């Protein structure tokens, strides 16, 4: 019998040749050697396939699957029938790992008997690299909806080191098709169904934002975020968990819609606002008006008052948008541009 590897790593690959070698090097050189590596070529045309074949020829742990271009979610799903590891980890092909990621996650999962390990990541974009820690006031082993809140605020499959039978026996899969947000339903379902999630508050995953990715090319495909949240809503009802996750879900839905609105080019915003208005239900309206600032920040509340209310709410929202940068201005700028000029005016008078 073929021995069961400790970890299966799944990498969907589509036209990422400039970044793929760094990703593969960080995977094949993991300190935990007992791993299975499944690379799914999703119809690449830029030379990525040659790199995959080069690495597969050198490392017998690598298996390459080929399919026509169907999108990242479909590519990850294509690997499911071949998963043999006790745990599964998803890696995006333009990102890279710390070399001890698999070993640390495996040891943590085994020691705590967790269904998933939630780990930190480092974001690399035009700004300096940064990493956000988990809420230190919450327990390291989390089981309730309230305890999982900060994990669910940022949905990405590589934020979880998953027990494979959790994914396979519960059909925890990605949304099919060439679309952004193909991982949100999978991530929510996996986190909700995990009886225990343990926190590894160490930045072991390096996430790269780059031009040309689905998340960075802003067009009307991103309107699908409205339907995506409805898919999550339906899933929570189907598995009987909606009541437990209601506040967490509605908060994320309203916050992510607001965030997406601000990322859209101006010509797309009216259509997106119309879709939001159509999707809002009475429960959403009651929530954004009464929820705590922890769940619905003031800026998000004003946003919904603007699009869902009248002229008064719109003026309040725009006034807040003008005032907020001043309120958030670093202290040294306040002293330089506000306090000192006032002092000079007073002295002159």
What can you see in these coordinates?
This protein has helices spanning 17-28, 48-58, 72-79, 101-112, 149-152, 164-169, 184-193, 224-238, 242-263, 269-279, 282-290, 298-308, 311-327, 331-348, and strands spanning 7-13, 35-42, 62-67, 87-90, 96-97, 116-124, 141-142, 160-163, 197-208. It is an alpha/beta fold and 349 residues long. It folds into 2 domains: 7-217, Spore Coat Polysaccharide Biosynthesis Protein SpsA, Chain A (Alpha-Beta Complex); 222-309, no CATH class. Strands 1, 2, 3, 4, 5, 6, 7, 8 and 9 form a 9-stranded mixed beta sheet that branches. Strand 1, helix 1 (17-28) and strand 2 form a beta-alpha-beta unit. Helix 12 (298-308) packs antiparallel against helix 13 (311-327).
Enter the CATH topology name of the largest domain.
Spore Coat Polysaccharide Biosynthesis Protein SpsA, Chain A
- Derived structural class: alpha/beta
Q: Could you describe the largest sheet, including whether it forms a barrel?
A: 9 strands, mixed
| Gross geometry | globular
Average residue-wise pLDDT? 90
Which regions contain 5 or more consecutive residues with pLDDT less than 50? none
Known CATH architecture of the largest domain:
Alpha-Beta Complex
What's the quick description here?
The protein is of the alpha/beta class and 349 residues long.
Q: Which SSEs are present, and which pair or pack?
A:
Blueprint: E1 7-13, H1 17-28, E2 35-42, H2 48-58, E3 62-67, H3 72-79, E4 87-90, E5 96-97, H4 101-112, E6 116-124, E7 141-142, H5 149-152, E8 160-163, H6 164-169, H7 184-193, E9 197-208, H8 224-238, H9 242-263, H10 269-279, H11 282-290, H12 298-308, H13 311-327, H14 331-348
Parallel strand pairs: 1-2, 1-4, 2-3, 6-9
Antiparallel strand pairs: 4-8, 5-9, 6-8, 7-9
Helix pairs in contact: 7-8, 8-9, 12-13
